[in-house]
Amino acid sequence: MERAEAYFQGLSEAERTQLTRNVIAGLPGSEEGFTLAEFQTVLDGYRDIGDAELRRNLYEFLREIVPVAEEVGVALAIHPDDPPWALLGLPRVVSTEHDLRELLEAADSPSNGLCFCAGSLGARGGNDLVGIVERLGPKIHFMHLRSVQREGSTIPVSFYEANHLEGSADMPGIVRAALLEMRRREEEGRNDTLIPMRPDHGHRMLDDLKKLGGNPGYTAIGRLRGLAELRGLEAGLQWGMEF
């Protein structure tokens, strides 16, 4: 808090305004935003909710909806915390492999699964991304294949969005583990053989630079580039696994 105070005092008025706007801007992929007063009201709603309470609420919610999802054939996929550590005094409960295992065990069902986001989980250096796919692969219902570059190792760590095949994530290892999981599912005779994925996030480039508005990271051409790179990686790995 002392470092934060020193940093804040060193900002110009314009920089303080920009920082405030960044903090209360809302969620990625949405246009929702808050005033400072509205943002404080939202935070106040969690004043008496700590780690244990948040986990209990989440697990009770899952125990109610997972049986219905299984009955109608819906595959639920929870997205990990982004970033995967406490933020603004709020606990985070889907940040590590231990968290993921607890959540899956809380409502054991083929319908209770994961959205494996390599970027979100990868921001936390202790997360073994390839190992998570290998060990929890049968429960992965969707994949966000993005990579971040960590700068340091102490949580919370500074990180930034990297190119899809660069950064701190072992993307070849992740995709190879996913291909092996899909092969295993096929041999098992599962109906959900394929794991859908998206490149998730992309840099502004080419015609994206001329477009006004939109949310950072959700540019069309940047994500198409990421998709092309990931499809090329997948094709190369498949060729190598076959020969």
Can you describe this structure?
The chain is of the alpha/beta class and 243 residues long. It has a domain at 46-201: Divalent-metal-dependent TIM barrel enzymes (TIM Barrel, Alpha-Beta Barrel), CATH 3.20.20.150. The chain is 47% helix and 10% strand. It is built from nine helices and six strands; from the N terminus they run H-H-H-H-E-H-E-H-H-E-E-E-H-E-H. The strands form two sheets. Strands 1-2-3-6 form a four-stranded parallel beta sheet. Strand 4 and strand 5 form a beta hairpin. Helix 7 runs parallel beside helix 8 (171-188) and helix 8 packs across helix 9. The relative contact order is 0.09.
Keywords:
4-stranded parallel sheet, 9 helices, TIM Barrel, alpha/beta, two-stranded antiparallel ribbon, 243 residues, 6 strands
Mean pLDDT: 92
Name given to the CATH homologous superfamily of the domain at 46-201: Divalent-metal-dependent TIM barrel enzymes
- Distance separating the two termini: 56 Å
Low-confidence stretches: none
Fraction of residues in helix: 40-55%
- What structural class do helix, strand and pairing data support? alpha/beta
CATH topology of the domain at 46-201: TIM Barrel
Put simply, the count of helices is 9
* Shape by Cα distribution: globular
CATH architecture descriptor name of the domain at 46-201: Alpha-Beta Barrel
* Major sheet description: 4 strands, parallel
**Radius of gyration from the alpha-carbon trace, in angstroms:** 20 Å
